[in-house]
Each structure stands twice: as C-alpha cells, then as structure tokens.
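Quick start: load a record and inspect it. Here is Olfactory receptor:
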Amino acid sequence: MDGDNQTTATEFLLLGFSENSDQEEVVFGMFLGMYMVTISGNLLIILVISCDPHLHTPMYFFLANLSSVDICFSSVTVPKALVNHMLGSKSISYMECMAQMYFLFIFGNMDGFLLSVMAYDRYVAICHPLHYTLMMRPRLCVFLVVLPWVITNLHALLHILLMVQLTFCSHNAVRHIFCDPYLVLKLSCSDTFINVVTAFTEGAVIFLTPFVCIVVSYGYIYSKILKMPSAQGIRKALSTCGSHLTVVCLFYGAILGVYMHPSSSYSLKDAVASVIFTVVTPMANPFIYSLRNRDIKGALRKIILKS
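Running the structure step on this input writes:
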C-alpha cells in the first residue's frame, strides 16, 4: 500500500444510492416523506394506547414499546442523511459513524426481541386464555422488555469495541445513506477475521433466538387453531395474529435476504434492500397494526371526537 492509503480515516463519506442530482432530489423527498409518516404514525399509536385505559393490556404495552423503538430506529439513520443532503455534504465523522452503528445494533435487535415477545403474548392469549392474566402479569411484561434492552446494549457494545480496534485507511466511501456495519467493515485495512467470526456466531445467536421463539410460538398457535371447533373461533385467533405475522415477515424477510451471507459479497442491491427494515418497516408498522385492529381504530375515533 502507498503512503496515502496508510492515512488513517477520520471521517466517512456516505455516497447514497445515486450520484445523479435529479435522482438525489427524488430520494431526498421520498425519505423525508417516509420519515415524517414514521414519526407521526408511531407517535399516534403511542398516544392512543396511553390515552385509552382499555388498551392498557400486555399486548398494547408491547406494541407501544415497538412503536417507540421504531421511532428511534428511523431517527438513527434518516435525519443525518437528510441534513447532509440539505448541506450539500456527504461526510460523517468517525465517532458519529461508530455511534450510528451502535444504535443500529440496539434498535434493530430490539425490534426482533419485541416481535418475539409479542408472539409469546399471542401464544398465551390463544393457547392459555383462562390463565392469560396470571401468566402475563405486569412484572413479567416489564421484565420481557427490560431484558432485551440489556442484551442488545451488550451486543452492540461488543461489536463496536471490536470495530474501533480496526484501522480505516484513505478508502472511506460508503455506498449507503448510513454507516452500514457490513460496508464499513469492508473499508478496513486491518484483519477483520475476529469481527466476521463474531458477527456469524454471537451475532447469529442474538438474531436467531427471537426468530426461533416466534416460530415455536406460532407452531403452538397453529396446532391450537386446528383443534378449534368453530370457524368463528379460528377467525378470531387469526385476526389477532395477522398483523403481527405481517410485520414479522416484512422485518425478517429483509434481514435474511441482506445479512445472512458473507460481508465480502455485500452489494448495492443489499444496501437498497436494507432500507426496507431500517426505514420502510418502522413506517409500515403503525398502518399494519391500526388498519386491522378494531381496538386501535375505536380508541382513535374516541380521541378525535373528544378533540
């Protein structure tokens, strides 16, 4: 390597998806619109659940937490991209990049854990309806939210501590709107073997644990539904799970398609696909849960009438 390549990078360049100015304007407008919808939609879900005593149940407690995480998840990436566009800049400092990746790890994994907790809640509601209140007591619900926060913070800390040990040379251009860990890892001129192994061992465990919990929970739910004598009972059970399953498929489908392969084969197509679970999924969640949920729509109608 020549002397220029040995210069330690103090910032990264977020190139986005297009170098065409007209296309960048379209992308800017698209992301601004999606971000505004994400914030307003999720805040509305939190407001409705907070204001209606009938929604102070475990299911909606977890949904309010999911909406809070989705707001934070989008806020980690989109505002920086929007500000850079308005300032005509593409740079992000080394420390900002590390902080962005840290919170991406936290909120991305929190989404997965909360989806698994919500699947367990649906399992208890459908398979053990008579014991639901006893099993899903408030102390357990709080524990099921606090524990993932602890796990995801430790997980993020581990990966960032490994990341800051690397040396980043003069090649500092990231073909994305945010510091994607895979793309940043490819820019290092140090040996990344430990980082890659950790991502595919510890990282895989953190990712797959909630996914397996969701699959097991819905396995039990499916077997219970098959034993229900009435079609009305089956429809009611499916209606309580439909929204959650839609979000799970959208979230995990995007992640499995993007990150479940070696970082060396990561491409621009993967970078575009990663926008689905970092931007599109947080935006879609309020619509998925509200449009198919009578309780949410009823509570929202009451708030509008009162105002």
